[in-house]
């Protein structure tokens, strides 16, 4: 909404407020009420206003802006006969429990069911009665001066309200309040048209109009008193607004200083962020190097696992070969025992002692390369006993040496180690490599 439109609506709202405030007249309003006692509010309806079921009277602190700022309220009782009892004095009673406890200025306001203020009383206070209260009598000359002064104050009031409207348009609440005032303006325009029609119809009734003029005179007096209180209120509001403006300026300066501090802190954060990015780049390089090292370690581990598998395979082959050699050794030992038994039997048959016939052969000769067999007993066809080392047994000798029945040991082998998992072959000399290779398979 444009600035000029806001000012026009604010001015129109002030004029409409003046018109609507005169439709219900509050009378017998004291300047102060004693705290702790019930308060009776007396009021009279004018002929321009018809009460409705949901109308109410509220106690407002002087300086209120909307009808939602009431302190307490009471519902209005409708007259039994709206045709004859409208001009009669009405009353509503406020209980002491719900009344204000401070000494601020308050006033009665009549609000219809549409939320429009139809009448307002002069300001009053809730305070104990004192001897310094003086009844002020206003002369006719002073009334005229007061009316002229009130006109000036009214103009100043309009300017102040327009200024308040310009200040309040900065907040979202002002827009809602402005829409409400616009609705009230439309309602008041309808009421104004109705009043104009009634005024045209009342031109023929001069007697009734004279009574209305008297009532309006009484109403104007009350309005003058209200305007005087309103001027005081507006002056206090203006002072409060100036203080609020100074406070806003100080807050703005503080926010500017805080913004400068935040800017410096932001620069420091940018420097810290640059350093962190540099550290992050170094860390990324270190991660890449660690990944390369990890790849090399994985490759080395795979090679070690392959070697371990080869060693395991060769170890298995060595175990198989060892088992085979052990079986052959046992078989040779059994054959040797049989030959020794046979040799002992033959020696006993010939009447010889085995200890005197058998040569002392070192143990290493049995395990080494095969030697030529020697005669361990004499030729049975010659009567001469030969020395055990005098000759060799002939191939034609029907009796053979027990050693000839033994199986000659196999030639020295260089076994290979085969991994049982990957069948990799390792030389027997690399036994440790083979075992490490097999161990890598278990990782």
From TrEMBL:
Name this polypeptide is given: Calcium-binding and coiled-coil domain-containing protein 2
Protein's organism: Cavia porcellus
Compartments it resides in: Cytoplasm, Cytoskeleton; Cytoplasm, Perinuclear region; Cytoplasmic vesicle, Autophagosome membrane
Keyword set, alphabetical order: Autophagy, Coiled coil, Cytoplasm, Cytoplasmic vesicle, Cytoskeleton, Membrane, Metal-binding, Zinc, Zinc-finger
InterPro entries registered for this protein in UniProt: CALCOCO1/2_Zn_UBZ1 (IPR041641), SKICH (IPR041611), UBA_autophagy_assoc_protein (IPR051002)
Residue ranges of coiled coil: 136-293
CDD domains per the UniProt record, alphabetical: Zn-C2H2_CALCOCO2
Keyword flag Transport: no
The keyword Manganese is annotated on this UniProt entry: no
Domain (UBZ1-type) ranges: 416-441
């Amino acid at each position: 909404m444009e600035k000029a439109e806001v000012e026009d609506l604010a001015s129109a709202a002030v004029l409409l407020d003046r018109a609507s405030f005169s439709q219900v007249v509050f009378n017998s309003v004291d300047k102060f009420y004693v705290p702790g006692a019930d308060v009776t509010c007396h009021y009279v309806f004018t002929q321009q206003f018809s009460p409705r079921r949901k109308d109410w009277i509220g106690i407002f602190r002087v300086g209120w802006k909307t009808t939602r700022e009431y302190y307490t309220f009471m519902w209005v009782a409708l007259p039994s006969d709206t045709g004859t009892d409208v001009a009669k004095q009405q009353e509503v009673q406020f209980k002491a429990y719900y009344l204000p406890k401070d000494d601020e200025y308050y006033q009665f306001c009549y609000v219809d069911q549409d939320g429009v203020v139809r009448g307002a009383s002069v300001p009053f206070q809730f305070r104990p009665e004192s001897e310094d209260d003086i009844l002020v009598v206003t002369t006719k000359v002073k009334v005229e001066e007061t009316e002229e002064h009130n006109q000036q104050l009214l103009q100043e009031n309009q300017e102040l309200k327009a200024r308040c409207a310009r200040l309040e348009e900065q907040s979202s609440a002002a827009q809602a309040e402005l829409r409400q005032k616009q609705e009230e303006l439309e309602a008041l325009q309808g009421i104004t048209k109705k009043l104009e029609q009634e005024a045209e119809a009342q031109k023929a009734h001069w007697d009734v109009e004279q009574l209305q003029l008297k009532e309006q005179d009484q109403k104007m007096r009350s309005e003058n008193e209200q305007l005087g209180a309103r001027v005081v209120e507006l002056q206090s509001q203006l002072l409060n607004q100036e203080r609020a403006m100074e406070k806003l300026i100080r807050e703005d300066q503080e926010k500017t200083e805080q913004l400068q501090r935040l800017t410096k802190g932001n620069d420091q954060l940018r420097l810290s962020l640059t350093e962190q990015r540099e550290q992050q780049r170094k860390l990324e390089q270190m991660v890449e190097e660690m990944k390369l090292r990890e790849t090399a370690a994985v490759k080395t581990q795979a090679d070690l696992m392959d070697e371990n598998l080869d060693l395991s395979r060769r170890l298995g082959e060595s175990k198989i070969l060892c088992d085979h050699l052990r079986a052959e050794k046992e078989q040779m030992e059994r054959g040797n025992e049989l030959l020794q038994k046979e040799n002992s039997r033959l020696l006993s048959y010939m009447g010889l002692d085995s200890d005197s016939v058998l040569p002392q052969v070192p143990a290493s000769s049995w395990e080494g390369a095969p030697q030529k067999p020697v005669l361990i007993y004499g030729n049975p066809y010659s009567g001469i006993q030969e020395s055990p080392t005098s000759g060799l047994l002939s191939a034609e000798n029907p009796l053979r040496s027990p050693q000839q029945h033994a199986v000659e040991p196999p030639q020295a082998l260089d076994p290979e180690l085969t991994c049982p998992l990957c069948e990799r072959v390792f030389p027997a000399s690399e036994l440790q490599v083979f075992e490490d290779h097999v161990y890598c398979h278990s990782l």
